[in-house]
Amino acid sequence: MSKHALIVGATGITGSNLAQHLLAQDGWSVSGLSRSVSPIAGVETLKCDLVDPDSVRGALVGARPSHVFITAWSRQETEVENCRVNGAIVRNVLDGLQGGSVEHVALATGTKHYLGPFESYAKTQPETPFREEQERLPGENFYYVQEDEVFAAAARDGFTWSIHRPHTLIGYAVGNAMNMAATLAVYASICRETGRPFIFPGSPQQWQAATDVTDARLLARHLQWAATTKAAANLAFNVVNGEVFRWKWLWPRIAAYFDIEAAAYPGVLNPLESQMADAEATWDEMVRKYGLQPNALSRVASFWHSDADLGRQVETFNDMGRSRKLGFMEYQDTTQSFTDAFDRLRADRIIP
Fold it and tell me: 99, 113, 120, 177 — which has fewest CB within 10 A?
């Protein structure tokens, strides 16, 4: 039977990879609900302002999706505002679709479910590996608010749901706050151009500790799997590559891709925001010199977000047992997650 996906946030790293994946499968059509038009051929864009309920309702007139994938969020200055705005995004969409065609709603959140919001990020140390049944942390967290909106709408409208908690997302995307692959590609390219040392910017704990990441392509496959697998209904899932690694092992491999040496780790934080504070003019010159797409440095790299991930002082990795027991057995090599993203960024003239 044919399935129609509505992807909320179809132009982001998760939404765009999901759209490409579903369009390559038999029996799927895709609409994207977002402020901007999706560049992916085959996606019907429904333009709206996700925080405006009237705008969302108007965009959804006549929409009859069988599956809804919510991958959008909007960063605010405080977690109270994050809860208000990002909870409203989920509520506006599900209220706009109330009743009728929706069989399943999948919500993508993340590991801040276990580590806390930006304001208190990684200030506590939950037991690793993180498991889906761990209790919520005390205090505000917009992921919890978004989950509760899904649960309430499911009870009202009768659809099934799934919650997906990726770790650090790796994949092809431009202009996305959470894409570490693009951020590290820009950093390495600037180091190669200027002779700066390619220094791991994070904490000693992240340099040494076990960790993992999530390839956006694997997340797309997991979203489809849970949305169409009866046994996966009404459950939350961690979603990671399946490979646990240490940054002291991966860092030289990233350096090798860019034909530079990995600098010796100095044992202290060297945040990218500080290292790259004077790099805008260098980047602009590189764009001209190499004929790159005319993207500002701030559009391609999100130094602040990668600093948050790499600066954690606690160990962070996730258990995938729940998915494995229900039949999702896919695995993704992490070095290849990065190098595949770098290849696409080069092919599209985003980086030299």
Answer: 99
